[in-house]
Every structure is written in structure tokens, then in C-alpha cells.
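Let's study a protein:

___
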Amino acid sequence: MPAIARDTGVGARNRIQKKDQDMTTDGNGDTPNLTEPEPLPCLFVTGFQVQTDEDAIARLVFWADLPAMGNRPAEARLQARITMLDKTFRRLLSEGRRRHSRGN
């Protein structure tokens, strides 16, 4: 599996802050202060699943498909799980569609 470069320096944080200047939280018009208490890796994923339940919670599960190598069979290796309120998930989808249609 190829190594994935991590861009976690001050420059990366500045790019995040500039890119997400319109970032808001649910029900709050104020722009929160984006912090990174410890460097977070950037994950590459090849698949995902969305799970929902009756409690207005959405769970996103992400994985990377790894090919068979030697005696090791092919596998889908879990990379991340994210849980959020349904209204946050709907905003995520809406924002993704909006930015994708604008080419951003």
C-alpha cells in the first residue's frame, strides 16, 4: 500500500482556515475557531456506507480496498467512522452538491 503524505504544518492549517471561512455550526451563525490540537491524518478511502436510525443519527463508515498480496487475501480495511445528527448530515450533502455544481 503506498504511503500517504500528511500535510499537517501551519501552512495546512492556514489553507483550511482560508478554505472554510464560511464554516458554521448547526443553529449558530458565528464562525467557530478551527483548531487542530493534534495532527490528523488525511485518509484515502475507496468505499463508504451510510447508516441511519430512528433517532435522527447518521453514521458514515469509510474503508479502503486492499488487494491480495502473497498469502494475505484481499480486504476492505476500516479507515474511519463518523457519527452526526441527521440535520448535520443533510447539510453535508447539500453543501457537497452545491460546491460540486459550482466546480469547487
User: Anything to note?
Assistant: The chain has a mean pLDDT of 79. The helical segments are 10-19, 86-102. The beta strands are 47-52, 57-66, 75-85.
